[in-house]
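F.,

This is the one I mentioned.
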C-alpha cells in the first residue's frame, strides 16, 4: 500500500547507512578511517567569508570546492558521505548472504536470494519481456469497469500508485486502533504543479514526461503512433487528477485532511468507483469506516472513472503498471525510468551502479532482515547508551524552555509538559523485529520478489484492522541515515545508520555532538510542537489541547518564520516556500535552541577550553553547519523547493542561526552583518 507519510523525517530522502566495519571477523565498528579525521576539519572552511556574513559558506566553502556532485548523484553532502561509507559494508553482508545457502525463511535467505536475483542481469534481460506481457495482459482482459476495479486492486498490491492511495495506519483521533485511509494520488510526476504551472521549466518537464510514457508503451510493444496516443490519454487523466488535488501546503493541515465516513457514505461519494468492493477485494471486509483525506479528490476520481472510456482507463492502469516495474525490468526500461526521474527531474548524469540499486530494493523489501544482519556487527551498545543520555538532557532542556515561555499560559504549558514527558524513544533498531513468515523470496525472479514484498506488506497492513496498534513498529530500517518523529505514537526514532560522524561521534567533544546529534534530537522533539505536531496530544491523538489565545500567539510566531524563509532565493527567481517548509524550519530552530541549552548543562563542572581555536559555543554552531554541507544540482534544487518540506541546506544553517542571540554572541555578529537580525525581528518559538 502507498501510505501517507505522517511521520516527520530529518531529511526527505532516507538513504541507506551502515557501519564503519571493514572486516567480517570484527565484532565492533572499525572506526579507524573515521576517527582519523578530526570532528571539525579546518580545511573544509572558507575563511575568506565572515561567519557573520554567510555561516554556511564559512564552515563549508572549502568542502564544497573539494566535493563536486558525482555524476551518479543529484546532490552530495554529509548524508551521502555516510551512505557511501557504508554501502560497501551492506554489499558485503548481501554477498555473503547470497553465498550462504541459508535455510528458507531465514534473514540470510531473504536477503541473499533477493540480492542475487537482482544482480542476475542475464536472467532479467531474458525473462523481463514475459513479466511485462503478464502485467499488461491482466489489465487487458478486463471486459468492464467492475473487472477493471479488480485489476486496480491487484496493481495496488504490487505497489502501483494509480488513481489514489489506500492504506491502513493508526486512527489519528484514536491512536490505539487502526483505520483505513484513502488519500489523493494517481500522478506519475512528483506533484500537481508539474501538470498545472505554465512556466517554461514545467512545460519542458511535461514534454519529457510524455516522451517517457511514449517510450514505456513502445518498449511494451506499441508502435510509435499508438504509444504517443496512449501517452496523451494517460497525461489527460493525470492532469484531471492534479486539478482535483490539494497543494502540498494544504496537505499540511491534519484537521482538514481527516474526514471519517461510514462505508455507505464513502460509497455514495465515490460511486461508481466502489470503495466497498475495492476493500473486499483487498481483504479488508472488516472495515466499517474509512478516513478520507480529501473528499473532493475522491469525488473527482468517481467522475473520471465514470466518464472515461474503459479502454482509456486500461491505458492509464497499464502506464502505471509499466512505470511501477520499469526500474526492475530489462535495461531499456530501467534506463528510460532513470532518464526521466533522475536525469530530467534531478539532474543526475549517470545511473547508480547496479548493486546499489538492488541493495536499495532489498532494504525497501526486507529491510528488517537486512537490518538484523547489519546491527549484529555494526551497532555497539555504548553508542545507544550515549544517545539515550543525550535525549535525557534534551528533554530536560525542553522542559525548562516550556516552563520559561512568556507567551504561553500555564494551562497550555501543563499540556505541553505532559506531552513532552510522554515522548517514546527508539534508538538503533526495533525491540521486536518484523516477522517475514510467509514471504516467498526466490533466487531467479527479481520482479516476482519485488511484487511479493509489496503484496506481503499490503496484506500485513490489512490484517491489522481490528487489532491493537503495534507501538513497537518502525517506519525506517536500521541502516537508514535519517530520523523521524511520529505523531500518532508520539515517538522519536533514530536508526543506527545516523549514529555516526558527522552526526554523532563518541570520540568528539560535547560541543560537536550536541551541535550535531543533539540538534537532530532536538529537531525531532520539536516536531511534536511544530505547526502540525502541536495538534496531537500526549497519547498521539489529533486533539486541540491549546488555549485559543496561545494558539494565536504560536501562529503569529510561525507566520513570521514562514515569511523569513520565503524571502530566501535559492536560484534566480526561485525562492523557498516558507509555508511548505514551516514544520521543518520550526524543528530546526527549536532543535538548535534546545540543544544549546542541553550543551550548557553537559558542560557544567567541566573545563571550557578552546579546541582548534574555537570555544565550545562556536564548535556547537560549526557542528550544525557541517551536518548540512551539501552541493546540489540546479534541477535538484528546483524540485526540492516544489516538493520537499525541508529548506535547502544553506538556509537550514543560516536561517535558524540568524534568530539565535547565542550565535551572534559566539561569533560577535553585529548590526549590518548579513547574518544579523535585530532582536525585534528574531523569531523565537520554543
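My design for it:
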Amino acid at each position: 500500500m502507498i501510505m501517507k507519510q505522517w511521520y516527520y523525517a530529518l531529511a526527505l530522502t532516507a538513504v541507506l547507512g551502515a557501519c564503519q566495519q571493514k572486516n567480517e571477523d570484527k565484532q565492533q565498528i572499525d572506526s579507524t578511517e573515521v576517527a582519523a579525521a578530526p570532528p571539525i576539519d579546518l580545511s573544509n572552511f572558507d575563511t575568506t567569508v565572515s561567519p557573520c556574513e554567510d555561516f554556511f559558506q564559512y564552515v563549508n566553502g572549502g568542502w564544497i570546492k573539494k566535493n563536486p556532485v558525482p555524476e551518479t548523484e543529484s546532490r552530495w553532502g554529509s548524508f551521502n558521505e555516510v551512505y557511501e561509507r557504508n554501502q560497501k559494508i551492506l554489499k558485503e553482508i548481501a554477498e555473503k548472504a547470497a553465498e550462504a545457502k541459508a535455510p528458507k525463511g531465514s534473514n540470510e535467505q531473504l536477503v541473499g536470494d533477493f540480492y542475487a536475483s537482482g544482480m542476475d542481469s542475464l536472467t532479467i534481460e531474458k525473462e523481463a519481456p514475459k513479466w511485462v506481457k503478464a502485467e499488461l495482459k491482466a489489465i487487458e482482459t478486463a471486459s468492464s469497469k467492475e473487472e477493471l476495479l479488480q485489476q486496480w486492486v491487484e496493481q495496488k498490491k504490487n505497489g502501483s500508485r494509480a488513481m489514489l492511495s489506500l492504506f491502513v495506519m493508526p486512527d489519528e483521533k484514536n491512536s490505539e486502533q487502526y483505520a483505513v485511509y484513502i488519500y489523493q494520488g494517481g500522478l506519475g510526476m512528483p506533484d500537481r504543479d508539474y501538470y498545472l504551472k505554465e512556466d517554461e521549466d514545467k512545460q519542458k518537464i511535461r514534454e519529457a514526461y510524455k516522451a517517457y510514457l511514449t517510450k514505456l508503451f513502445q518498449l511494451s510493444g506499441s508502435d510509435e503512433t499508438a504509444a504517443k496516443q496512449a501517452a496523451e490519454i494517460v497525461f489527460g487523466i493525470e492532469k484531471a487528477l492534479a486539478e482535483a488535488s490539494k497543494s502540498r501546503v494544504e496537505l499540511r493541515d491534519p484537521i482538514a485532511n481527516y474526514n471519517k465516513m461510514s462505508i455507505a457514505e464513502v460509497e455514495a461519494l465515490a460511486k461508481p468507483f466502489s470503495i466497498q468492493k475495492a476493500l473486499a477485494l483487498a481483504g479488508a471486509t472488516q472495515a466499517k469506516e474509512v478516513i478520507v483525506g480529501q473528499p473532493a479528490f475522491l469525488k473527482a476520481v468517481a467522475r473520471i472513472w465514470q466518464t472515461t472510456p474503459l479502454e482509456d482507463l486500461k491505458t492509464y492502469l497499464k502506464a502505471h503498471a509499466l512505470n511501477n516495474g520499469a526500474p526492475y525490468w530489462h535495461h531499456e526500461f530501467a534506463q528510460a525510468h532513470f532518464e526521466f526521474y533522475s536525469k530530467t527531474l534531478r539532474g543526475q548524469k549517470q545511473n547508480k551502479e547496479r548493486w546499489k540499486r538492488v541493495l536499495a530494493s532489498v532494504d525497501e523489501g526486507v529491510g528488517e532482515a537486512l537490518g538484523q544482519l547489519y546491527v549484529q556487527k555494526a551497532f555497539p551498545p555504548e553508542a545507544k547508551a550515549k544517545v539515550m543520555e543525550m535525549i535525557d538532557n534534551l528533554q530536560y532542556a525542553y522542559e525548562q524552555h516550556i516552563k520559561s515561555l512568556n507567551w504561553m499560559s500555564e494551562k497550555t504549558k501543563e499540556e505541553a509538559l505532559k506531552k513532552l514527558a510522554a515522548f517514546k524513544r527508539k534508538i538503533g533498531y526495533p525491540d521486536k523485529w518484523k516477522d517475514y513468515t510467509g514471504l516467498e523470496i526466490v533466487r531467479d525472479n527479481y520482479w516476482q520478489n519485488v511484487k511479493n514484498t509489496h503484496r506481503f506488506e499490503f496484506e500485513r497492513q490489512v490484517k491489522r484492522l481490528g487489532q491493537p496498534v503495534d507501538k513497537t513498529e518502525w517506519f525506517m530500517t536500521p541502516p537508514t541515515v535519517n530520523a523521524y518523529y511520529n505523531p500518532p505514537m508520539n515517538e522519536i526514532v533514530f536508526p543506527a545508520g545516523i549514529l555516526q560522524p558527522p552526526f554523532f561521534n563518541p570520540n568528539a567533544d560535547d560541543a560537536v555532538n550536541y551541535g550535531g546529534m543533539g540538534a537532530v534530537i532536538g529537531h525531532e522533539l520539536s516536531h511534536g510542537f511544530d505547526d502540525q505536531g502541536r495538534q496531537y496530544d500526549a497519547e498521539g491523538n489529533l486533539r486541540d489541547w491549546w488555549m485559543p489565545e496561545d494558539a494565536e500567539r504560536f501562529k503569529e510566531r510561525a507566520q513570521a518564520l514562514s515569511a523569513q524563509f520565503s524571502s530566501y532565493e535559492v536560484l534566480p527567481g526561485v525562492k523557498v516556500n516558507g509555508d511548505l517548509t514551516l514544520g521543518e524550519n520550526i524543528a530546526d530552530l527549536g532543535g538548535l535552541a534546545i540543544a544549546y541549552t542541553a550543551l550548557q548543562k553537559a558542560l557544567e563542572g567541566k573545563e571550557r577550553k578552546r579546541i582548534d581555536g574555537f570555544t565550545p559555543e562556536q564548535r556547537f554552531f560549526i557542528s550544525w553547519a557541517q551536518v548540512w554541507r551539501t552541493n546540489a544540482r540546479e534541477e535538484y534544487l528546483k524540485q526540492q523547493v516544489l516538493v520537499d518540506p525541508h529548506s535547502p541546506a544553506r538556509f537550514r544553517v543560516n536561517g535558524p542561526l540568524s534568530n539565535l542571540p547565542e550565535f551572534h554572541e559566539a561569533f560577535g555578529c553585529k548590526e549590518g552583518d548579513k547574518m544579523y537580525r535585530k532582536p525585534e525581528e528574531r523569531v523565537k518559538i520554543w
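Residues 8-87+381-430+469-681 form a domain with the Collagenase (Catalytic Domain) fold (CATH 3.40.390.10).

Talk soon.
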